[in-house]
Design a protein that fits this description.
It is globular, with a radius of gyration of 18 Å. By secondary structure, the protein is mainly α. The protein contains eight helices and two strands; from the N terminus they run βααβαααααα. It has a two-stranded antiparallel ribbon. Helix content is 78%, strand content 2%.
Amino acid sequence: MFEMRRLEMLSNTIFGVAMTLLAYDLPKASSFKQAPSWMDLVHVYAQPVIALMISFIVAGMFWFSHHRRLAVAPEGGRGVVFLNLFFLLSIILLPVTNGLYGTYRLDGVLAVLYGVHLTTIAALNAVLWVLALGGRRDPHLLTTALFPVVVFVLGTAAAVVAPEVAQYTWCLAFLAPFAGWLAARRAR
């Protein structure tokens, strides 16, 4: 058995670096030849900042979930450790897809790529939660883990036909704690 505290230290570093690198692709001041107007700022920064905000909140949401999961299952076997490493790899790649999505947010292919990435992160998180619960039925935790998967799949499907709508659908994933609360309430 592997003590997950070691993985927790690694994950804090990975999440911190990945969340910081999200800002790397923001346009630099040198993209303006003179002092920009408000509309110039909106035109240049709106798309990248929207992508950064979605990605930062998604990363924060999964960082919180990851720490809660490690507290629920403080030890894990080799398979769980490797699955956690794949989960962390998916977080490391977030600045890459965020940069592409922030630059070309309305492009269908890149919106779908970003959506597939968000879905992958959510699916790995959900599988890790199922393993951490070890067969226990906890409607609150299971719903909180599975809800983002459903939302990201729907958002990615929306990105196929209407990339400009996908970001609004993906933001619904932030309601996962509320969905978990409702599931726990219904189970009583």
